[in-house]
Each structure stands twice: as C-alpha cells, then as structure tokens.
Amino acid sequence: MVMAHDKAAAKRKDWRIRESTLLIIAALGGSIGMLYAMHRLRHKTKHTKFTLGVPLILAFQIALTCIIIYLVNK
Fold first, then answer.
1. What does the pLDDT look like over 15-63, one tens digit per residue?
2. 17 with 2: CB under 8 angstroms?
3. DSSP of 11-38, one letter per residue?
4. Which has fewest Cβ within 10 Å: 5, 15, 31, 33?
C-alpha cells in the first residue's frame, strides 16, 4: 500500500515517501509486499538500491527465519 501511495504521489507530482523509509519498511518485514509492488506497479524498478536491496533484504529475512526455526527445533 505504501508503494502504491508513493507511485500515485509521483504521478501527481505530490509529496513523496523517502526512499530510506521504503527500505526500512522492507527491512521490518515488508520485503515481500515491496518486491511484489515494485514489479506489479513498475515503481522503483530503475533504482539499483531497490532492485538489489529489496531481494537481498528478503533473502536475509528468509535465511534468518530458517536459522530461528532450526534453533528452536534443535
């Protein structure tokens, strides 16, 4: 929803959400939604920090989840 809001604001040339805020949202668990919105809305797909950063954040979150599950079930 945040990416959709930012995309709409970009079209209206209105107030935008900071890129750092978008990346923080991805890091706090919104990486799947952010990645989906990037491709669905074609928003921020030309920015390297998003095309590489969001998938790396998601990979880190998946790895961390796997480690936690492993440690809990050990």
1. 999 999 999 999 999 999 999 999 999 999 999 999 999 999 999 999 9
2. yes
3. HHT-----HHHHHHHIIIIIHHHHHHHH
4. 15
